[in-house]
Specification:
Layout lengths: L4 E7 L2 H9 L1 H9 L2 E7 L12 E2 L9 E2 L1 H15 L4 E12 L2 H7 L4 E6 L8 H7 L4 E7 L9 H12 L10 H4 L24 E2 L2 E2 L9 H23 L2
Parallel strand pairs: 1-2, 1-6, 5-6, 5-7
Antiparallel strand pairs: 3-4, 8-9
The structure holds 6-chloroguanine (6GU).
Length: 242
C-alpha cells in the first residue's frame, strides 16, 4: 500500500515518544503502512565524545540553549533520508503559534513532517531562520497551549495523535470525523462542541438517560443534540472568554 504520511520525531528522549506511539490506533496505522513514524535520537548527530546538544545562551540568562549545529545536521540527514521533496518542520516551543484542528487538517495532507522537540530554553533561533530560507521546507513554531512543559515531546505526541487520525484509512468510520467537536464547518458557521452521549443501562445511580433519546423520533433526537451542542458551546466559550 502507498505510504501516505512520513513522520520523523527528533528528541533527546526517544523512549519518551517511542512507547506511546507504538500503542493504539496510531501504532496500527504505522503497521498498516498508512503512516510511517520514525523516532530519531538527536545525540546521534553530535560529533563530540560527550554528545553535547546544548550550550550557554549568548547575552546571559538562565538555562541552556540547544545548538544549531547539531539540529542542522540532524534535520538535513532526516530530510535526505525521507525520499520526499518537501518537509514540514515543526519546532515545538511554548512561544509558537497555537495548535488547532485546522492546523491538524492541513498537516494531515503533508508528505513529510519533522517534529523538532526542544528542551531547556529552546533551540537556537537560527534553525528557524535557516530553514525558512529553504524552498524544500516550511517551518512552523508551534505550541499546544498556554502553559509551559519541560520539552516538546508531549506536545509532539498530542499533535501526532490529532494529525494521524485525519489521514484517510486510519479511522475505520470516517463519519466519526465529520460530526465531532472542533471539526471544520462551513464558512460563517460556528464550530460546535459535541453533544453529550449515553449508553446502557437506561438508569444509572438514579440518573436516567434523557427520554428523547429512547423516543425513536430521529428528527427530534437530531434537534435535541444540536441544541445541546449549542448550549455546551456557549457555556464553555463564556467560561473561557473565547
Ligand atoms: Cl510545544 N513546548 C513546551 N516546552 N511547552 C509547551 C508547548 C511546547 N506547548 C505548550 N507548552
Amino acid at each position: 500500500m502507498a505510504r501516505n504520511l512520513k513522520i520523523d520525531v527528533v528528541t533527546i528522549f526517544p523512549d519518551y515518544v517511542v512507547t506511546p506511539l507504538a500503542q493504539s490506533l496510531i501504532g496500527k496505522a504505522g503497521q498498516s503502512g498508512l503512516i510511517e513514524i520514525i523516532t530519531n535520537d538527536l545525540r546521534d548527530f553530535t560529533t563530540d565524545p560527550h554528545r553535547t546538544v546544548d550550550d550557554t545562551p549568548y547575552g546571559g540568562g538562565a538555562g541552556m540553549v540547544m545548538m544549531p549545529t547539531v539540529w542542522g545536521d540532524a534535520i538535513d540527514a532526516i530530510a535526505q533520508a525521507s525520499e520526499t521533496s518537501h518537509h514540514e518542520l515543526i519546532i515545538l516551543t511554548p512561544a509558537g503559534e497555537l495548535f488547532s484542528q485546522a492546523m491538524a487538517e492541513e498537516l494531515s495532507s503533508a508528505e513529510h513532517l519533522i517534529f523538532a522537540c526542544g528542551r531547556y530554553e529552546g533551540i537556537d533561533h537560527r534553525v528557524t531562520e535557516h530553514y525558512r530560507t529553504r524552498s524544500d521546507f516550511r517551518v512552523r513554531e508551534v505550541s499546544i497551549g498556554n502553559y509551559v512543559l519541560n520539552g516538546g515531546e508531549a506536545a509532539a505526541l498530542v499533535m501526532i495523535e490529532a494529525i494521524a487520525r485525519l489521514v484517510p484509512g486510519v479511522i475505520g468510520n470516517p463519519d466519526s470525523l465529520t460530526e465531532e467537536s472542533h471539526s471544520i464547518v462551513a464558512e460563517g458557521q460556528e464550530a460546535l462542541l459535541e453533544y453529550p452521549s449515553y449508553t446502557k443501562p437506561a438508569e444509572w445511580r438514579g440518573l436516567p438517560v434523557p427520554a428523547i433519546l429512547t423516543s425513536g423520533n430521529h428528527g427530534l433526537i437530531a434537534k435535541w443534540r444540536r441544541e445541546q451542542a449549542i448550549s455546551r458551546t456557549r457555556q464553555i466559550r463564556s467560561e473561557t472568554g473565547e
